Amino acid sequence: MTTKPEVSVAGLQPEALYGLMTVQEVFRENKCEMTVTSVTDGTHSPGSLHYIGHAFDLRLYHIPQAKLDTIIIQCRERLPGSFDVVIESDHIHIEHQPKKQR
């Protein structure tokens, strides 16, 4: 795993760290480099979970499409239901957001 030089992990919550470690294992198994591009740093939409340490972004452009599909499926399978894995236009966004119980 690598990070962009300006990435800050200050305030990363334990649940998001668990997610980061789980996703790192998926990337390793698929023989792809994982690059973290944002955690608690950067500019995000108002109310973003990045600001409270519950989200992180990963570089997307270097992953072949066939591997990307596999990586996304495996991340969604391995992370608990309190995580969302979203492919954005230029990155993978992963956030921990506990769902409300009904």
How does this model look, in words?
The chain is of the alpha+beta class and 102 residues long. The chain has a single domain (2-96), classed as Muramoyl-pentapeptide Carboxypeptidase, domain 2, CATH 3.30.1380. It contains 2 helices and 5 strands; from the N terminus they run βαββαββ. Strands 1-2-3-5-4 form a 5-stranded mixed beta sheet, covered by helices on one side. Helix 1 (14-29) crosses helix 2. It is globular and about 35 Å long.
Structure summarized in a few sentences:
The protein is of the alpha+beta class and 102 residues long. It contains 2 helices and 5 strands, in the order E-H-E-E-H-E-E. Helix 1 packs across helix 2 (65-78).
What key phrases describe this protein's structure?
102 residues; alpha+beta; Muramoyl-pentapeptide Carboxypeptidase, domain 2; five-stranded mixed sheet; 2 helices; 5 strands
Rounded radius of gyration (Å)? 13 Å
CATH class: Alpha Beta
* Distance between the ends: 38 Å
Record the strand order, biggest sheet. 1-2-3-5-4
Task: Please tell me the CATH architecture by its name.
Answer: 2-Layer Sandwich
Ranges with pLDDT <50 over ≥5 residues?
none
- The CATH topology is given as Muramoyl-pentapeptide Carboxypeptidase, domain 2
Query: What fraction of residues sit in β-strands?
Result: 15-25%
Number of domains: 1
Structural class based on helices, strands and sheet pairing? alpha+beta
The rough form would be described as globular
Helix content: 25-40%
Number of H- or I-type helical stretches:
2
Mean pLDDT: 93
Q: What is the total tally of β strands?
A: 5
Query: What's the main sheet like?
Result: 5 strands, mixed
Order of helices and strands: EHEEHEE
